[in-house]
Amino acid sequence: MxxxxxxxxxxxxxxxxxxxxxxxxxxEHLRNDNRNVLFILGSGFDPRMCTGIHAIMNxxxxxxxxxxxxxxDEGDDSPSKNYSTEVQRNKDELQKLLxxxxxxxxxxxxxxxxxxxxxxxxxxxEIISDSSVLNGWNDIIVDVSALxxxxxxxxxxxxLYLIDEGSQSQTKxxxxxxxxxxxxxxxxxxxxxxxxxACYLHGFSSALEREATAGIPVVWIPVLGEGKExxxxxxYDNVKPDEICPVLPSPSRNxxxxxxxxxxxxxxxxxxxxxxxxxxxxxxxxxxxEIYRQIYRTIRRYNDSLKPLQGCKIVISAVSSKLLSxxxxxxxxxxxxDGYMIAISHIESHGYVMQDANAxxxxxxxxxxxxxxxxxxx
Length: 378
What we know:
The chain is built from 13 helices and 16 strands. By secondary structure, it is of the alpha/beta class.
């Protein structure tokens, strides 16, 4: 990597731990100082909901512990309503983990307005109202394992923004993201009742909607996952791109996963949408900072090449695992800060279903990403 490029990549020198290193990192991080820790979790039926907080609470350490639990209502017709027993089981486990050690504060998140409009993403960004919420916490840990993308994308964006804005003030919180990754379980938990049209996610839309940018080329970067053809088609109709650069996971735990995805979407990508094979981007399945770097470089390269046409508008879509999705979000956030015209195309669903109960017994791994704070000299 060229020195000039390295200096422009915020998350090049990162702290990213996984597997057995997860426990070692948190034990080392929490044991020496009196650290106040705020956990942010989503309430859901996903069996991974409490895995991360369980491991971190076992790391002990002194200081205040609190959990901000987000409960979201997807509507009376949501298929997620069928899993109320599993949701309650997770909440009971969370209560036991914090009993005598910390408290739980519940935040209700309304996904629909009274007149039937989607408002979940906007409301998610309002959960953390301003930087005063961050005061008093040494570490803020957002566990996205049981949170849908439409919630944790705007939530993480807001937290990063507040920490960046407060870097010269008293706001000195560390921001961590925890993910319990299980590709088999992710494939089993499927969206149901997909919206008819995609939309641009709150906070990442203004650049594409300005009339002054109407004639500027659009480059679409979809991060691919299994079984998402309907979502991709509706996102394509929303974006109407001039160029498409799909992202595939490679290397991957399954060495053939990237090839399998190419076969699954061969007709859509190459026959119908006319994607150029050289436009395909490859990024490591288990390293979100790798996909961040790959997408950011692509954004910069296209803008440099199209500078005579005022650059280009970039649209990112993530329909893959949470780790890859976080990498895509980081690229979008950094590109927006650097002045590029950037948007995130997203499509919501009415809820989720578990297609294979046996997938719960699959192998999972804990990952921790340190996104802001002491290690970046903020």
